[in-house]
Amino acid sequence: xxxxxxxxxxxxxxxxxxxxxxxxxxxxxxxxxxxxxxxxxxxxxxxxxxxxx
Length: 53
Hints:
The protein is mostly loops and 53 residues long.
């Protein structure tokens, strides 16, 4: 179960992250799902037009 949103599934086309404690959509708010680079606090995150993350 995701500790951030409470979801019981990882999300469409996603995998569980951080030892099964974050669903894919919640984890993508912490780091880039493509390159895995962590976001900085107050950094502007642009939504992907292909995957809507």
